[in-house]
Amino acid sequence: MHIIMNPPYSRNLHLKILREAMKHSDDIVSLSPIRWLQDPSGKYKKNSDFNKFTDICERISDVDVIDAKDATTMFGAEFWNDLAITHITKAGGFDYANFWKCFANAATYAIIEKIGKPVYIDKTMPSIISEFGKNDNLPYWVNCPRCHGHIGKKDEFDIVPMKFELSLNKQDKEHKNVYFATKEEAENFYNSLRTKFYKFIKKCAFYSTANVFTGLPYLGDYTHPWTDEMLYEYFNLTPEEIKEIENEL
Question: Which terminal Cβ of the chain has fewer Cβ within 10 Å, N or C?
């Protein structure tokens, strides 16, 4: 039996349905989101879909990626991530190494190693999402929206609005706020998220929109500004890695 499917796009429901389909066929073609495979930092995330659905990974034989911008035009709906036509067979054999090279080069992988590993594996550096709601008695906070930016637009990789006033002390129904004792600290935190460094992480490293703050490191001290140059030095980036960031954004 052959199966052609376009399962619902709700979190990883499409993978759960695909897993069930694999019980009934050794030849499946599925149109579904591909972020879970594009993310070169997936191996660092204990609960990533890449690590949860290894049985699917082993049976993928081919993947044709549809760019999010093209998918939006083709299907008349707004897509935040790429889609893919994925072929599942009994033998599998997909070449992940070459696939990932399309999304990240050596410098990108090195940056992921320096940021993703301490955040996801060693737990030696907190992510911004871990700070949501802490010290909510403090008078200033920055709203960290679930999603921001528009596919194919200038603000595609922005993390917060372009104006500080749109982030300062704005209510969020999901309480995705980081709190500070002073307005200056709040603004320094906000400005750090406007750097090329942080936008690069969103663009190339973690492929997450709904949970982008999971992969963004929290620096702790925002009593002073954080510039790109300071962040490059803080994370000990090499000239090649810095060049990669500067060229990408």
Answer: N
